[in-house]
Amino acid sequence: MPVPSHSKDASGFGGFRMTCPEARENLGLYLYGDLDFATEELFEQHVSVCELCRAAIAEERQWHDSVKANAVEPPLELLSNCRQELHDAIQIAQEAKEPLWLRCLDSLGFRPTGWSMRIAMASLLVCLGFGLSRLSERWVPTPAFTDQMAVIDPLRAHVRMIEQGSDDSIQVVIDEIREHVVSGTPNDPLMRRFLLAALRDPSDPGIRVDSLEALKEDSGTDVRDTLLDVAQHDSNSGVRLKAIAALERFAEQAETRRTLVNVLSHDECPDVRSEAIDLLVASGDKRGLNAQVTDTLHNVMKSDPDGYVRMRCQRALQASNVPVKVY
């Protein structure tokens, strides 16, 4: 949850005031009632004086209502049928991998049982000699293996499939989950590799945000390159927003400015585009905005579908004493 800025906004009240990007980021939490009391007060105070944010919350509430109205709960019978079809497909694929001679015996009704196959194998090993028979012992399940399976923690195992037997018995197929804990500082090479890998993990945006936070003081080139990639390609707009904020320490570099221009021109989220504008303007305070940045700001001000983004482009150009084209 973003910390409100200490500024004076259009309402005319001094003190802590929430900015438009902060309000947009807290919009979903507000609709779900997950904001704390103080932040909710600041949010409502900002919305009361900001027409753009009022329109945004109305649009978001309408979208939520539409999703709720069209929610479909799949019937349990459909889920059961899907699981059964998946199980049948897996069974067919496994049978297709069996040797041709085994399938031929099966078609003739002479399919060997598990015990007959073991007896044949044991006989072959005896014929090959006592030494080879000793080698084969490691392939036979031992009581130690059974004891190990008996102590699997159900809370740390994932049940993948449950099959009903012909009698009252059931068979549970599990994937045991084993965790490893690695400790160290963000500067340790091993920890940095883990954190950079977590930044590219597509499964959990929360993990990617935590990794961004852990690397916020790291100024390495590999960290910068990863942040540039995340800012442009991450599937979650919140993660892209955090990545752009983390690029502040690299704002003066040409690679960063090119990435910000690309984000401003192509990112679908208006909050992300607004953050890119702020960082571009901040990086150009000392030496001014170059031609590529000013041209991009003019183009976005002309064609961006979001009114707040267009206004931010106009103010950025005016603050940098760049002539603003009238459209």
Structure description:
- With about 325 residues, the chain is mostly helical.
- The chain has 4 domains: about 5-70, no CATH class; about 100-140, no CATH class; about 140-180, no CATH class; about 220-320, Leucine-rich Repeat Variant, CATH 1.25.10.
- Helix content is about 60%, strand content about 5%.
- The protein has 16 helices and 4 strands.
- It has helices spanning about 20-30, 35-50, 50-70, 75-95, 100-105, 115-130, 130-135, 145-150, 190-200, 205-215, 220-235, 235-245, 255-265, 270-285, 290-305, 305-320, and strands at about 5, 15, 155-165, 170-175.
- A two-stranded antiparallel ribbon has the order 1-2. Strands 3-4 form a two-stranded antiparallel ribbon.
- Strand 3 and strand 4 (about 170-175) form a beta hairpin.
- Helix 1 packs parallel to helix 3, helix 9 (about 190-200) runs antiparallel to helix 10 and helix 13 runs parallel beside helix 15.
- The longest helix has 21 residues, at about 75-95.
- It is elongated, with a radius of gyration of 31 Å.
